[in-house]
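Tokens for chain A. Residues wanted.
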């Protein structure tokens, strides 16, 4: 959160609902009277609008979306308080049958005025950068998997056994009885896969440098000593957690990862469920991956 200040210093409550091409915004006073009626501001004009209209004495709430941090960085230095609201939690608290941009703004403002906004932690720039790199690497992995699946599909279509040289054995593919379109597909898929693997290797090298750098080196070195944790898993964990001091205890961290067990306890019925899966999915993936690797290492 931006410096919260004293709530008595707040003169206006401003809500921002971010869309792809515009920001929907509105502002109320403490009596829930409109001081800025809901309106759209085009995304390319928002920085100017914010500089001309936001000031000390404003409290701003922004709902999480893809480019929320870009908007937060513009707004936070201008106002007394800036918070980022968890979009799903907002819907759970203030779900309504009528959903319009104006109603969304009203709901956000009421939560802000009542001081019950379900906030998310605002990660600093270096954490955002690491998270962005991990997210990009995950996209490369998924792209590579899709290419391999298409090549496997071609094998199954012709009932061909996998080459001893593997799926990327171009000479083996050229020797198969494929039609013109299929040969073209194989050449292009193999070229794409090679490029994806090159990009992933370049990104892995950058993550390796970060793991021994000034910002992440100390934490990464400690985690890498644990069994089952390599560079990618370690940096994924560090990026997802950010500042571990923001968690009150280990249970809160487990909940953030979505690794805690769910429970149904109502009346005489008590039923234990599986893990909640309600936290950051990349952190959950990294912890599960590390556990499986540790098991395999113990069996050697």
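Reply:
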């Amino acid at each position: 959160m931006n410096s919260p200040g004293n709530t008595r210093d707040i003169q206006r409550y401003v809500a921002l609902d971010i869309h792809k091409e515009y920001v929907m915004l509105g502002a109320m006073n403490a009596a829930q009277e409109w001081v800025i009626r809901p309106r759209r501001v085009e995304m390319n004009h928002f920085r100017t609008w914010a500089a001309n209209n936001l000031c000390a004495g404003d409290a701003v709430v922004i709902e999480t979306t893809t480019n929320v941090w870009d908007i937060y960085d513009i707004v936070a230095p201008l106002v007394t308080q800036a918070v980022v609201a968890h979009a799903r939690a907002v819907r759970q608290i203030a779900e309504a049958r009528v959903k319009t941009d104006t109603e969304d703004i009203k709901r956000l403002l009421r939560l802000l005025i009542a001081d019950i906004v379900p906030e998310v932690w605002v990660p600093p720039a270096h954490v955002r950068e690491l998270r962005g790199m991990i997210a990009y690497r995950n996209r490369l992995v998924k792209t590579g998997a899709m290419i391999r699946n298409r090549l496997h599909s071609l094998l199954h279509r012709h009932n061909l056994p996998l080459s001893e040289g593997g799926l990327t054995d171009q000479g083996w593919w050229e020797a198969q009885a494929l039609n013109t379109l299929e040969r073209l597909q194989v050449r292009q898929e193999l070229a794409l896969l090679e490029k994806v693997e090159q990009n992933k290797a370049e990104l892995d090298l950058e993550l390796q440098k970060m793991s021994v750098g000034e910002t992440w080196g100390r934490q990464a070195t400690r985690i890498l000593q644990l069994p089952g944790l390599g560079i990618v898993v370690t940096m994924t964990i560090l990026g997802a957690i950010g500042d571990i001091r923001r968690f009150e205890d280990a249970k809160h961290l487990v909940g953030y990862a979505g690794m805690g067990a769910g429970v149904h306890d109502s009346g005489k019925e008590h039923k234990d469920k599986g893990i909640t899966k309600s936290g950051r999915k990349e952190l959950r993936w990294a912890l599960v991956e590390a556990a499986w690797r540790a098991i395999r290492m113990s069996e050697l």
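The CA atoms of residues 182 and 188 lie 10 Å apart. The first strand starts at residue 12 and ends at 18.
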